[in-house]
Amino acid sequence: MLLTVLFTVTALGYLGFAFRHGSTGVSRVSDVLHVLMSIAMLAMPWSWGMTFAPPTLQIIVFAVATLFYLVLTLGSSRYGSHEHHGPGGSGRLVLGYHVLMMAAMVVMGVMMLPMAGGAAMSMPEMDMSSGGHSMHGSWTGWTPISWILVALFAAATIWMLVRLIASARVRQHPLARLDGVLLLLMSAGMALAFIPTS
Question: How far apart are CA 172 and CA 176, in angstroms?
Answer without folding.
Answer: 6
